[in-house]
Amino acid sequence: MPRQGWQGWDEYAPFYDWENARTLGRRDVPFWRRVARGARGRVLELGCGTGRVSLPLARAGVSLVGVDRSAPMIDRLRARLRSAANKRSFGAAARLDLLRADIRALPFASRTFAMALAPYGILQSLLDDADLRATLDSVARVLGPGGTFGIDLVPDVPHWREYQNKVQLRGRAAGGAELTLIESVRQDPRRRRTTFEQRYVERKGGRVAEHRFELTFRTLSVRQMTTRLERAGFVVDAVLGDYRGRPWDPRADVWIIMARRW
Description:
Elements: H1 9-22, H2 29-37, E1 43-46, H3 54-59, E2 64-68, H4 71-86, H5 90-95, E3 96-100, E4 113-118, H6 129-142, E5 143-153, E6 163-172, E7 178-188, E8 193-204, E9 207-218, H7 222-231, E10 234-240, E11 255-261
Parallel strand pairs: 1-2, 1-4, 2-3, 4-5
Antiparallel strand pairs: 5-11, 6-7, 7-8, 8-9, 10-11
Helix pairs in contact: 1-4
């Protein structure tokens, strides 16, 4: 069976926040907060995961619907929302709705949302053109005329050198366990795919457990992505090169595409 882009994310859920706190952190959150607060209606986040972006947006007053295919990811976000409610932080919980769904076939009526967001390379988990086309068509359908679609791509993924069993991160996790991330990288330039083989070694109280899974991403150029957006009924308004809004160039650390539904 061909590899699917959603594979590996269920297994990644227990380690996602731990790793991203040591790599990306929250440096993209202020950008998406500014963008989303300008929406004139509900906002849809594709691949909301454990709420790294969703929760700060909801706390800022954004009416948000988050979708993710991974049940373990969604479960972790729901637990965070319950914790917020218990601490009387009712606002975020009230403004954030969650749904387990496939972004290739969004289960919403047409013209439901004023804005859709695809942060931190979520569209790069779509491993072929058919999946990307289905997703863009689905987003176009649920956005109203003039609705905004913000896309964040991670450009350096196809430039990672290949290696095997490299220790990438070490540290203490919530609950006191010591975690070590051991990583291998494979590149498939012909299909524009990069596969990360992740091995998390968890040590606690004399016990050692290993968790193995793979994550695969497909990276298109800005021109290729904008062409596919235009075919799906979008007009590209801006291409940015960082989270401060600077213009894009091929050496930019991030590629942000801001498009508008016809």
